[in-house]
Design goal:
The protein is an alpha/beta fold and 332 residues long. The chain has eleven helices and 14 strands. It is globular, with a radius of gyration of 20 Å.
Length: 332
């Protein structure tokens, strides 16, 4: 009798889309699979900001337990939600080709009004549906009456660094829930991951890419995990593993791990393979966005093994350590 792999997934529309993608990829290699739905802790508490919960793996732990208990054979995660240290007995089975790593600002009302309230000067904006980016003109940081929403401390810190007078509200829930909350609120907009909205065809027309905002490490990538001794699942998932995405996201997650970051740390990182070289950018900000330390490096791919760790040490020695200590002290 043919073995049917049990794919563990959260029951949100995006999670189901991701798990179904893996199911279809397995089917392309004549491997049968079915979905098994499991609630995560992050899906149950939708009120507390993620950085206040302070629990790494809040969206993955329930699936990890089901995997170790033998209720499922593999689990599919948004890679940015996966702790840098996997639980004992669980290994990475596959990383899928990365989608967009960018963040989107989903806004309400007319863009001309929103952009005016952001105190943007002439030449700062591309057309609606394009990107929100900085050219050579200088951004004015005058008073902004806007209220935006996000549950990400990383997005909050980067936004406040650029627009310090913005009011930021907490926004929790799956993609559909968050979009509905934005529509029903009096907020001016909210920040979402582009990949999450685009994968399930929910990107609103009133959205613009934040080219200046660095993503969370591994944002836009999907990770499949299984038990370390499960050769059948490991072999099946290896057939759709993307090595370029794996290389870049490992560097980003090494950077995060070296900084000992989690939901309570505003840490961003992006590694890209361009013409045989790895272009890396990383930063850490204070929660209020007032302080920022960043690092940039370009190295040959053959020399990138320790790039994430090395970049983290450079960042820490150039002022990042004081930000890390301040955030840790605030949490005590």
């Amino acid at each position: 009798m043919e073995k049917v792999l049990r794919i563990g997934t959260r029951d949100s529309q995006l999670a189901i889309w991701q798990a179904t993608l893996v199911k279809n990829l397995l089917a392309e290699h004549s491997i049968a699979a079915e979905l098994v739905f499991i609630k995560s802790e992050g899906d149950i508490d939708l009120q507390t900001p993620l950085y206040e919960i302070g629990v790494q793996g809040i969206f993955t732990r329930s699936l990890d337990i089901a995997l170790l208990d033998g209720r499922i054979d593999l689990a599919v995660h948004s890679m940015k939600d996966v702790p840098t240290q996997l639980p004992k007995g669980i290994v990475q089975a596959s990383i899928l080709q990365r989608a967009s790593y960018k963040d989107l600002f989903v806004y309400k009302g007319e863009w001309s009004v929103v952009s005016s309230e952001l105190s943007m000067v002439s030449g700062e904006l591309l057309a609606v549906g394009g990107s929100l980016t900085t050219h050579n003109s200088q951004l004015t940081n005058e008073h902004s009456p806007l209220t935006i929403a996000t549950s990400s401390i990383r997005r909050q810190a980067q936004w406040l660094h650029r627009y310090p007078n913005t009011r930021v509200e907490n926004l929790r829930g799956n993609v559909n829930t968050r979009l509905r909350k934005v529509e029903e609120s009096d907020w001016n907009g909210a920040i979402f991951a582009a990949a999450g909205l685009e994968r399930i065809n929910l990107r609103p027309e009133k959205s613009i890419e934040l080219d200046w905002m660095l993503p969370a490490p591994a944002q836009g990538a999907i990770m499949v995990v299984c038990k370390e001794n499960d050769e059948y699942t490991l072999n099946g998932c290896s057939k759709f593993h993307d090595e370029t995405t794996a290389t870049c996201t490992k560097i980003e997650r090494d950077f995060l791990r070296a900084l000992m970051g989690g939901c309570s740390m505003p840490i961003s990182a992006l590694a890209e393979l361009i013409d045989g070289k790895i272009k890396f950018q990383g930063n850490i900000l204070s929660v209020d966005g007032k302080e920022k330390v960043e690092v940039k490096r370009i190295v040959d791919i053959d020399d990138a093994t320790n790039l994430g760790y090395d970049a983290a040490q450079e960042l820490l020695s150039n002022g990042g350590q004081s930000i890390v200590e301040a955030i840790r002290n605030e949490g005590k």
